[in-house]
Task: structure prediction
Amino acid sequence: MTTQTLTAHDHSPAATAPGRAGSAVLDTSTTPAQLRIDGDWTLPHYRVLKQQTDALGSNYDASVPVDMSRLRALDTAGASLLVELLGTERLARLAVNAPELPLSSRALLQTIQTALCDYCAPAKEPEIAVGMQLLARIGCAVDKVWTDTLQLLGFIGLILQTVVFNLPRPKRWRMTSVITHIEQTGLDAAPIVALLTFLVGAVVAFLGATVLKTFGASIFTVDLVAFSFLREFGVLLTAILMAGRTASAFTAQIGSMKANEEIDAIRTLGLSPVELLVAPRVLALLISLPLLTFLAMICGIIGGGVVCALSLDISPAMFLSLLQADIGVQHFLVGIVKAPIFAFLIAAIGCLEGFKVSGSAESVGAHTTSSVVQSIFVVIVLDAMAALFFMEMGW
Amino acid sequence: MIKSPHLRSEAVIEVRGLCNRFGSQSVHENLDLDLYRGEILGVVGGSGTGKSVLLRSIVGLQRPSAGSIRVFGEDLQQLSENARSQVERRFGVLFQKGALFSSLTLTENVALPLIEHARLSRDEAEHLAGVKLALAGLPLSAAHKYPASLSGGMIKRAALARALALDPDILFLDEPTAGLDPIGAAAFDQLILTLRDALGLSVFLVTHDLDTLYTITDRVAVLSQKRVLVAAPIDKVAATQDAWIHEYFHGPRGRAAYSAMSLPKEV
Result:
C-alpha cells in the first residue's frame, strides 16, 4: 500500500503561473500498479516535473500501464519529459493505451520522440590539466606571433606589388577613394592631434622647467621641447593616435565587408580587393600622417612656448631666436622621415586584420582590437630602434 | 488540408488604423488586421510593401506613427516596462536572417531565454535546448557549434528552436522556409502544423513560399497599396479580382503549387 506521492508543493516562480503543476504518480493501490499522469505538463512547472520523473525513473518497469486521462496542458518542455519517462516502446502503443489522449497531444509526443531518437546527450570532452592548458596557450600564442608576422610580410609584399603595378597606370589610382580617406584620416584627425600635442608640449615644458631650474638652466627648456617634439614626440604621438583611430577604422570597414561577403563579391567581379580597398587607404595614410606629424610638431612647440612665456618669462621672440640658433634642421628630418614608414605599417596592419575577419560580429571586434594593439606595438618598437640608430649615427 | 476548427474565435492580435511613415514615405496607411487564436495567418505582398515592418510593429520593435495594436487585448505601447516584458515572453520570433547570437553556441542560444525567464538551471536548460534543436531538425553534431560555422538552413532551424524555447503563444515567422531545401521546408511546414495543433499556437507567417501558403495557412492576408487588401482563406484570396493577386496566385509558380496541393488529396 505505498502510493509514491511526489506532487511537490512548489515554491518556485512557477507557482505564479496559471494552471496546476502536473504530477507523475506511481499508484500501487490498484493491481496492476498504474502510472498516473495528470495536471499541466508545461514549461513553468518544468523543475517540479523534472524532479518527479527523475525520482520515478528507477522505480518502475516498462510493463506498468499508464493512465493519462487527467493530463491537461502539454507543451514541448512537458512532452520531452514525458517522452523520457515513458520510453519509446510505450509511446508506440500510446494510441491503444491512452485513447483518451487528444490526437494533437499524441502527435506532439510522437514528433518529439522521433526528434530525440537519434539525439542523445553529447559526450563531455575530457578535462585537461591546468599546467598543460597553460603550455598549450603559450604555444598557441607563440605560433600566432610567427604566423601573424609571416602574413604581414606577405601582405606588405602584395601591397607593394599592386602599387608598383598601378604606378604607371594613373587611371587605376582610385583618386576619389584616396581623397575620401585623406579627409577621414587626415583632416578629421587634425583637431585632436593638434590639441593633444599642444597639451603634451606644455607638460614637457613644465617638467623641463622644474628639473632644469635646480641647475639654473631653465633656458634649456626651449631646447628640450624642440628636441623632443621634432625628433620623437611629434611623430610618435601622431602615429599612436592614428593607430587607435585609423587602424581600427580600416579593420572595422574591411572586416564588416568581409563578414557581408562583399570582399568575395569584389573577387568574383574579377577585381582585386587589394587594389580597390587597400591601396587607396595606404596611399591616403602615407599622405596624411606626415602632414599630421608636421602639425603635431608645430603644436607641441607652441605648447612649450606658451608655458615658457607664462611661467619662465621667456618671451615668444626669444623662444623663436633660441630655436633658430640651437636646433638644426636635421632634427626635423630625423622625425619626419619615420612618418611614412609608420603610416604604411599602420595602414597595412589595419587592412590585413580586416581581411582576417570571419563571419561573425564578434570576430570584427576581436580583429579591431588586435589591429590597434599590433600597430601601436610595431610603431613603438620601430621608433625605439630608429632612436638607437640615429643616436649611434650622430644625426 | 487541416483547417483549424476553432477559427473565428477570439483575436489575439488586433491591428487597427496602423500608419507607419519614414520621413515623407509612408509604408502603411490605415491598416487593419486580426490574428485569431490557433490560426496560421500567411502574410504576403510584393517587395517593399511593409511585411517586415508590420511584423516589427506588432512585436514592438517599431513604434507606429498612428493607430493601435492590441495583443491579448492589451495595447503594448500603454503597458509598463514590466508588464510589457511579460507579454513579450509569450512571443516567439524567427527573424529573416536568424539573428542568432554569434558569441554563443546553438545550445546556449536556445538555453538563454530558458535560463533568464523560466529560471531553469543551466543543465536543465541545455538539456531542454537540445530537445528543441532536435525538434527543429538539427543534428546533434551542430548543437555545440557557433552560428558562424553553419549553413543558412541550419541557422534558420536553430532560430526556430530559439523562437520555440519558451513555448510561446504567438509565433512570428519572417520567411522561415526561404533558403531551406524542399525536404527541409516540407518538414518545417509539418512541424509548424503539429505544434499549432498541440499547443494551440497562433502563427503570423510572412512568406513567399507558395507551397507553404497552400499547405499550412488558414488565412492569407495580402498587403498591397499600404493596407491589407484582403484577408481570407487562400481559395477566396486567389479568386479576388486584383491584378497583383491574380499574377501571384495564377502565375506559373502559383498554379504549380496549387496543383501540387490538390493532387494527393484525391487519392
Summary: The first helix of chain B runs from residue 51 to 59. Chain B touches chain A through 34 residues (CB under 8 Å). The beta strands of chain B are 11-22, 25-36, 40-45, 66-71, 74-75, 91-94, 170-174, 202-206, 219-224, 227-232. The first strand of chain B starts at residue 11 and ends at 22.
